[in-house]
Amino acid sequence: MLKSLFIATLASAVCLVSGAGASNAAEPSSDAMKVPGFAVDVFPPWQDGRNNDATDRGLAFTVPEIDDMADFHGDLTNPELVLFVGGNYYFAMAPLVKAFEASHPEYKGRLFWETIPPGLLVDQMKAHGRITVGNMTFVVRPDAYFAGLKKVQSLIDEGLLDGPPVPYVTNTLTMMVPKANPAKIDSLQDLGKAGVRLAMPNPEFEGVARQIKAALAKAGGDKLADAVYGTKVKDGSTTLTHIHHRQTPLFLMQGFADAGVTWKSEALFQELAGHPIAHVDIPENENVTAVYAGAVVKGSAHGEAAKAWLEFIHSPEALSIFERYGFKPYAGQN
Questions:
Q1: Residue 315, domain CATH
Q2: pLDDT grade, residue 10 (50/70/90)?
Q3: Which end of the chain is more exposed for a tag (fewer CB within 10 A), N or C?
């Protein structure tokens, strides 16, 4: 629907331009001048601006699907704490920041955080904080980094982070589907079927892809994992995402995919937000558990603030926020 509206509008625009200089050109109809509509709630940024702690926001200029910068939050003018957060819980950051600032008022309105995939955050760190988004290039250097425990430990070993890692919550996988599950997805085995369209995290920079492959192998052996991440990628029925937590529900809500494997917390957020999304549980014996952890970035400009956040992130108050979205407190397993 969106695609056809875009094509129709583009065709109308071409006709208008090509006939602009003709004195006998007919006036465009009112229908030809209409801007294509879309469901605003489908497109990020979601949460009505709550993922921004800036106290002075100046001009409000956000256009869903066009100008939104959904993974960059806060005021870059003079932050006192910069967090690089693997995007698996971008939706929890608003209440987490609010709670942190309530107990640390000296940082109110002074946080900036990014929620792109963990591998891309590392690429940005190695580029000395420089990043280009659309037409904008800026530099922001993190004070603390958050991802899976194994990833955090590897970056400590590499010398990018200062140890020890601080683990705080765990998460499990689920199958995200459109509401009412029209493709009747019931198990991981169903994802390997011909004709089932998938939106799956890209193994190149999304660590969850490794864990999804492990779950697929548990459910159907290497044959199933190879079908989902090999055969179906080649035939176009698996689309690899760049920001799996954001693109999978978008593809589902727009009718471009029938299912996708995500962290359960992401599906629960979509459901709590009232979006037409549902999830299908993966049995425990086929599932995997991720441990989330963080650490101070070596050479951090705001080391004390980073340590304060790391202390806060596994506090009872923070854990209660995570539990709203299905996360469980880390208890030393894995």
A1: 3.40.190.10
A2: very low
A3: N
Instruction: Report the C-alpha gap between 47 and 115 in whole angstroms.
Output: 15
- Return the structure tokens found at 291: 């441990």
CA atoms of 179 and 276, how far apart (whole Å): 5
Give how many domains the chain has, as a whole number. 2
pTM over 0.85: no
Tokens of 30: 């009112």
Using alpha carbons, list the distances in angstroms from residue 149 to 31, 216, 321, 328, 332.
54, 22, 20, 15, 11
Single-letter amino acid, residue 150 = K
Q: What is the 3-state secondary structure (H, E, C) of 165-191?
A: EEEEEEEEEEEEEECCCCCCCCCHHHH
- Both 203 and 270 in one domain: the answer is yes
AA letter at 98: K
Per residue in 234-266, pLDDT (tens digit) is: 999 999 998 867 889 999 999 999 999 999 999
Give the 3-state secondary structure of residue 10: helix
Furthest CA-CA distance within the chain:
77
Domain encompassing residue 195: 171-286
What's 72-110 look like in SS3?
A: EEECCCCCCEEEEECHHHHHHHHHHHHHHHHHCHHHCCC
